């Protein structure tokens, strides 16, 4: 660990991992059904996840017609339909600096009850009711919409608390991006609402959908599309090319790999990018020539975004299996779960010469792996102790960390509408992946301030089980991200320095130095002691104002 914690109460920095005989270890729990295909998911409170699907023949009903939005209650394991106006099929989303969540983009609906969602903006104001009663998704398509129609765009909260909306396709395309939106825009709008062209998107056609993008701690944006990567300086409006992803591996839809910004550590917050999966298949072949049986890529590529790191280039590591459409989930202890996807084929549906059912992909990856960023190269990826599921999570599946600290896994449907009796059906079953700490006594946080300023010291009360008092401490500030199409946009983990009081009951924590290290907005704080993480405590980071907000805190 690069000084992410002051080892406050230890003589020996020994990690007190929960004894293997304690609790159930990693395990899956299947409980409840969503009633819509959860092809997008985002945690909006301690008890609720917001899910979106295509407006089509879903079993969950509202006002006598199928629903295409739902609230998943993490306490009761039930879905309630949400009254959505426009079709949110293959949209994206993010929180703003004022705590409002915006769902972005969509499609032309397959049922008459929905309106065209291609330039849709759907507003979810902060809502405290634990069951979501009285919470609404506000839309006014006439007056509140994007400049462009966008399907398969990426959205990303940036340092002024606005959302950058990147790329996409104007409307439905069976496989490749053949009607591209090679530009970006913002919400709330900047530049008088005129989108900015982005060369990266021109260069990476035709497989550049959901460009994998991250806000870097200096405020610039890292983007990857196809096998290319750049740093985009949005203040100067310049693109700087970085080394290509090695070995011709491509990672954007419909050739989906996934990517994450590794946890950021004080005091330097040096950004490192990890990209895994995808395929080395050429993007120049017609989809009818592709096969569901072609192995995906098992490659993970990692680069440090400093001048020396870029000079060294990408470091390669291999997953335990190839994965098309995996996701990577940052865990509160700084490790990463690699989960979901298929071992062969491609994203999208009913396009390749040998679809399985309707699926362009086959051989689901049923066993998650753990990636340990601090381990030596070649020893970072393991599935020791990981359980195996029998529920395929291929195209249109999602996974997200919850406030409880487990993973909510839902969706999967490589089908144009709801289809049940096929090899890869529309999947409504919810599964949780529970880490070992879910079944042992855990640290708890209390009296956590509702709002924290940048570069400030604040205190929280803690209760740490006595068996863990030898463990080292990590305090993570996390954006749990928005899961859609093998990418978790705005997902982020920033470690915070922390010191435990002598009586072991109070933790004094230093917040991130400024709004570029953590783009202002909602977050969860998790305390990990040894290897046991607490449930999360929700906070607002920054001044909570409506974007664009001014720079806050101090430069690094
Ligand atoms: C698919 O199965 C679900 C139950 O899992 C059912 O509610 C729904 O009506 C079925 N839909 C179709 C189109 O067969
Ligand atoms: C499913 O969730 C409900 C509500 O939390 C709970 O009562 C029930 O015990 C759970 N079932 C399983 C099998 O975990
Ligand atoms: C959904 O919204 C429509 C349009 O505003 C309204 O007519 C309808 O009553 C709402 N339905 C529910 C269940 O709130
Ligand atoms: C990236 O793809 C292009 C073809 O589009 C290829 O010419 C180039 O060599 C690839 N880069 C790497 C590092 O494989
Ligand atoms: C492409 O990927 C496959 C599957 O990982 C691998 O077997 C093959 O050697 C790769 N081909 C090239 C040219 O890198
Ligand atoms: C946050 O800002 C957005 C965009 O201006 C606005 O629509 C929303 O109502 C604001 N939310 C709050 C809670 O002020």
TrEMBL record:
Query: Does the record's keyword annotation contain Signal?
Result: yes
Q: Where is the Glyoxal oxidase N-terminal domain?
A: 68-437
Q: Which residues form the Galactose oxidase-like Early set domain?
A: 442-541
Q: Which residues form the signal peptide?
A: 1-18
Q: Which domain of life is it from?
A: Eukaryota
- Give the UniProt keywords, A-Z: Signal
The identity of this protein, by name, is Glyoxal oxidase
Query: Can you name the source organism?
Result: Agaricus bisporus var. burnettii (strain JB137-S8 / ATCC MYA-4627 / FGSC 10392) (White button mushroom)
What broad taxonomic lineage does this protein's source fall under? Eukaryota, Fungi, Dikarya, Basidiomycota, Agaricomycotina
